[in-house]
Amino acid sequence: MKTELSETFGIEFPIFGFTPSEHVAAAISRAGGLGVLGCVRFNDADELDAVLTWMDENTDGKPYGVDIVMPAKIPKEGASVDLNELIPAEHRAFIDRTLDQLGVPPLDEDSARNEGVLGWLHSIARSHVDVALRHRIALIANALGSPPHDVIEQAHQHNVPVAALAGTATHARRHVENGVDIVIAQGYEAGGHTGEIGSMVLLPEIVDAVAGSAKVLAAGGIGSGRQTAAALALGADGVWMGSMWLTAAEYKLGARHDGKPSAMQEALLSATSSDTVRTRIYSGKPARLLKTKWTEAWNNPEAPDPLPMPLQNILVSEAHQRINNAENPDVVAMPVGQIVGRMNEIRSVADIVAELVSGFEDSVARLKTII
């Protein structure tokens, strides 16, 4: 499984794995792909710097990337206390009432309260770029489209290519005009922020739209070697995967100390491809989440409308912290794609990558018999 893009990055397979876990990201790179660490959870630049130092030391000299959340248009920002004042009281009351009804206990008095993941803020995302470029990253990806022009130029000055997610061919063309090097064509099936066009339709549209101007990664609904082969057959230069790594053995966020799967992983392992919902309750922008009692509560008639980004994230941040601490599989709040129906066992990253490669080879061999 070789493409021009995998050779450009010096990786064995054109498998790009997005994950909020540095342990998973490092394992993806060691297994021959390119691990991409999501930075949005880091409110503190020093903490990100320490984690990227760990990545430098635990990827066996192989390349890795980072993913930021930065809108192209610079929004008005105030201090976090100013943003908190913009959140209506009825929204906070709904959160408290819902968590109580779902049996989610409050945080201990000595627990640090999240004030919202500040990585959603433009200024914090810029600090993530500054920190990342002090390390040996091979890619900067932006989850919210094209970064500002000066950020793209800053990355290019460090010989670091820039990738951006796109949900339409129009978005893809705009990315190329802005100087983006790699377009991630993310279909409707994907977890997290995603658009309304399915991957089978979207991918060839974007490949045609940017032909010769940018490389294309396929995202959304990819969790096997067969699907990887299909993506490359449709013109992609590689695959971008996020959801599949959530049930990797190396995933450490929220994991129990006894080594058993976390509540989040238990919920994912038992889910089918029908058990997701696309909603704005996670961040204020449409995102696909696992369907749970938490997402159902937001569908009740008395539930308020989600707030715009980043206010919705600030609103639900402590709730997510409480839900995570509760370790209840019925009440998790987790972005995941429809591929969750295939995520039915805990496997190492190396095993996941090996299956992707062997499944790809089997699919190619089958096609040769048909041809």
What report would you give on this structure?
The chain starts with a helix and ends with a helix. With 371 residues, it is of the alpha/beta class. The chain has 14 helices and eleven strands. Strands 1-2-3-4-5-6-8-9 form an eight-stranded parallel barrel, surrounded by six helices. A three-stranded antiparallel sheet has the order 7-11-10, with no helix packed on it. It has helices spanning 4-9, 22-30, 45-57, 80-84, 89-101, 122-132, 149-157, 169-178, 199-209, 225-233, 263-269, 293-297, 311-326, 349-370, and strands at residues 15-19, 34-38, 64-68, 139-142, 162-166, 182-186, 192-193, 215-219, 238-241, 276-279, 287-290. α8 links the parallel β5 and β6 (182-186). 49% of the residues are buried. α2 packs parallel to α3 (45-57) and α5 runs parallel beside α13. The radius of gyration is 20 Å and the shape is globular.
